[in-house]
Design goal:
By secondary structure, this protein is an alpha/beta fold. The chain is 52% helix and 8% strand. It contains 35 helices and 17 strands. α33 packs antiparallel against α35. The longest helix has 25 residues. It is globular, with a radius of gyration of 34 Å. The protein starts with a helix and ends with a strand.
Length: 783
């Protein structure tokens, strides 16, 4: 990502003739630099000369693309100079050079002895040329992974045809890469020899998957397949296949974890979860910890999600919000936070601070200035709120000694967060990195408190690297530095030395090509996950890529389809998907849809039935065992002497809609905690306006309004809404509308004041209702 220095220069405009923004912040420049680096690598891998970029600007393209290519020309000119100055070479170019050197050794005969290439589909052009050299060598052999010898010639011709005529078949089919490779090897498919024999059931499975994933234009051949294959052979093809269709990601992860745990019941049996969804992989690994089983994740863990990385991000979030209550509460719960205290002491004080201070009106808005200036004043204000008769009972139970310990905690926060909180404005990167490092070292515990020290070493190395050679013209605010740090830390992968279980693995699609297991679990089989959504280029449109000779984005879909077909070749396969992801419905993967359509309802229903075994366990594992005899359905029917004898009209409405709310409040005396940062919801907003109007009416109860009424009412509203006005969004968006409402209200008052004898902001009333047992129930109301 050394290109970041080039990208960031365009933060305002890379071409003074055009007002076109490359990146609005340095964090955006970092992201674009990664996109640019990927494009440069792709040009090297695809063997495309950069000089071919400029002539591509056609008249029918929008002016945007001319500007984009102007920017790319800057990179084309500057990047080789940067490498030459640093005496470096692109990693992709080095790999291509090494592969080409190996090809030359094969061609000129300097490399003797048998050479066998196994498992490559030759998507890299240099690799494809190496495979061709190996295939032509006297003692060379190329083993093609999963070449489909069952697909009919007509469908194969669609895959090998003109890519411009049929992108779907030429790039998204599982055999697309192998079809192109055979062309480069100058070998016909019928000349490829199959190695060994497979069991009849797996041969039937292979034919079934091949038919299911055939090009869309040839799916009418499914009719012929169904006539050739009877129900017995179809059942044999799907015998070891199970399908888990979970309600959401959590249920999918738990069902997969149970399936992996079930594998351990069979001695020596192994299992591998294969998924492109890293979130699903992390969820499954976490669920396995229920049984003390740690499965190795081949993708590792990003530094940003490690314990020290999460603490570093939480510290920046606190600095960006100036210690707003939600961010401060999240920081205080982190297990590595020490502040010079023991973890137990921090946890105890954090819980008290959240209930006593952070969930009070005094904690509204930013707290950094109040904590750094007079933390005792914040404690006093919170204690006064706790003395209110309507305050939450938990606040009243905080002792004087505990209030003193909270004041000490705020003093520690102010002192140890000073390096970050004292910075402001746009500053060079090294200033932010130094302050960030000092803050983390101050608030975190020692290395002895952290059993996994790899992440600490990685964070220290990252800080060292960011401190070196940063251009002064790249400046950051606290928010942009936080985004930048999160993006960089996300790219640093920690492998760890965890004692993983030897029989379980969690793999990405690439790693799964090299690993075998008795049970293969294929997770995340939904559209946009597996296969992924075709990702367009940030710098080149499709016609430009085609003219350059770069493959379209759909190539990735073909690679993932090949990975799926290969993984289906195991004796026992468990497929999984979720009907909802991130709360939104998703569509099942096209792989599943095609197999379901080809198999038919009856055969596919059996696959679902085998998957339901794991789903039923997942849905039952966190539920208590049934009680005999069964407990009656709970009903809010407390004894008469515990029932309230007085309710308001709105409480009657609540009683009709949800009686459990009144039961919890009046009988159990359970009160909901106030929100973090004070009560600033819609109800509090309305109450504040009502309070301002009440004070205004008390000052002017009768008669015409004086000339300064508008400024007086405006001042009262600002005073009552002081907490809300600390929110920048409220001050910028809602307050101007409220000021317009002042004029409407005063105009309304002016038209009616001469007809009114007395104004009251509210009136209370009650109605006593005699009951059959002689008691009185009182209904109250407030207008």
């Amino acid at each position: 990502h050394a290109i970041v220095s080039v990208s960031a220069q365009g933060e305002h405009a890379f071409d003074t003739r055009e007002s076109f923004l490359v990146a609005t912040t340095a964090a955006d420049a970092w992201h674009l630099s990664g996109e640019l680096a990927n494009l440069i690598d792709e040009l090297i891998i695809e063997d495309v000369a950069w000089e071919r970029l400029d002539p591509l600007v056609l008249s029918e393209f929008d002016r945007y693309w001319r500007i984009t290519l102007d920017f790319l020309n800057i990179a084309i000119e500057q990047w080789p100079k940067i490498l030459a100055e640093r005496k470096l070479v692109d990693e992709a170019r080095r790999q291509v050079a090494l592969i080409e050197a190996q090809s030359r050794r094969l061609q000129d005969g300097t490399l003797s002895g048998p050479v066998i290439a196994i498992g490559s589909t030759g998507t890299n052009r240099a690799t494809a040329r190496l495979l061709a050299a190996i295939a032509r060598a006297p003692q060379g052999a190329v083993v093609l992974p999963g070449l489909d010898l069952d697909l009919d010639d007509r469908a194969w011709a669609m895959i090998a045809g003109d890519p411009g005529q049929n992108i779907e078949a030429s790039f998204t089919h599982p055999q697309a890469a192998l079809s192109r490779l055979l062309g480069l090897l100058q070998v016909k498919r019928e000349d490829v020899v199959s190695l060994g024999e497979v069991a009849q059931s797996l041969a039937a499975r292979s034919t079934f998957v091949s038919e299911a994933l055939r090009p869309a234009e040839s799916t009418h051949e499914w009719i012929d397949y169904r006539t050739r294959v009877d129900a017995v052979l179809l059942d044999a093809a799907l015998q070891g296949v199970s399908l888990i269709e979970a309600a959401d990601e959590r249920e999918e992860a738990l069902a997969l974890a149970i399936a992996m745990r079930h594998v351990l019941e069979t001695p020596c049996e192994t299992a591998a979860l294969v998924t492109p969804d890293r979130n699903l992989a992390r969820r499954v690994r976490t669920e396995l910890l229920r049984w003390g089983v740690d499965a190795e994740d081949s993708a590792g863990e990003p530094l940003s999600t490690s314990p020290i990385g999460a603490l570093a991000r939480l510290a920046l979030a606190c600095a960006a919000s100036k210690m707003a209550a939600p961010d401060l509460a999240a920081l205080l719960t982190h297990p590595l936070l020490r502040l010079g205290l023991s973890r137990e002491d921090v946890a105890r004080r954090a819980a008290l601070l959240e209930i006593g201070v952070l969930r009070s009106a005094s904690a509204a808005g930013s707290l950094s200035e109040r904590i750094a200036g007079e933390p005792s004043a914040l404690i006093v204000a919170a204690r006064d709120e706790a003395d209110d008769p309507y305050a939450h009972p938990a606040k009243k139970r905080i002792s004087a000694e505990e209030w003193a310990s909270l004041e000490d905690l705020l003093f520690r926060l102010a002192a140890q967060f000073a390096p970050l909180l004292n910075l402001g404005g746009k500053l060079a990167l090294d200033r932010w990195v130094a302050a960030h490092r000092d803050t983390i070292e101050a608030i975190a515990g020692s290395e002895d408190d952290d059993p996994d020290r790899e992440d600490r070493a990685a964070l220290a190395a990252l800080f060292d690297e960011l401190m070196q050679g940063t251009p002064d013209h790249i400046t950051f605010g606290v928010e942009s530095y936080g985004l930048f740090f999160a993006a960089v830390a996300r790219e640093i992968i920690l492998r760890g030395a965890a004692q993983a279980h030897p029989r379980l693995q969690i793999l990405g699609l690439l790693e799964a090509r090299l690993v075998d297991a008795d049970v293969m679990l294929l997770g995340g089989l939904d559209e946009t996950v597996w296969p992924p959504q075709a990702r367009t280029d940030a710098f080149l449109n499709r016609p430009m890529r085609a003219e350059l000779g770069l493959t379209p984005p759909e190539r990735k879909l073909g690679q993932t389809a090949h990975d799926f077909a290969q993984a289906m070749g195991k004796g026992k396969v468990i497929l999984s998907r979720a009907r909802k992801r991130d709360g939104a419905p998703v569509v099942a993967s096209r792989f599943l849809q095609r197999m379901a359509a080809l198999a038919g309802d009856e055969a596919w229903k059996k696959c679902r039935g085998r998957g339901d075994f794991y789903l039923d366990l997942a849905r039952a594992i966190d539920h208590p065992a049934p009680v005999t005899p069964p407990i009656e359905r709970p009903r809010p029917r407390p004894p008469v002497d515990l029932r309230p004898t007085r309710l308001s009209v709105t409480q009657i409405e609540t009683l009709r809609r949800d009686p459990y709310v009144l039961y919890a409040e009046k009988i159990l005396r359970v009160k909901e905690l106030d929100p973090l940062g004070g009560a600033l919801g819609a109800g509090e907003f309305g109450s504040a306006i009502h309070a301002a109007l009440e004070r205004f009416v008390d000052i002017h109860p009768v008669g015409f309004l004086p000339l300064g009424a508008r400024e007086k009412l405006r001042a009262l509203l600002r005073e009552e809404l002081a907490a809300q006005l600390q929110d920048e969004d409220f001050a910028a968006l809602r307050w101007p509308r409220l000021e317009k409402t002042i004029d409407f209200y005063l105009g309304f008052e002016a038209r009616r004041r001469d007809k009114i004898r007395l104004i009251k902001p509210e009136c209370e009333g009650k109605l006593d209702i005699p009951l059959a047992d002689g008691s009185i129930f009182t209904l109250t109301a407030r207008a």
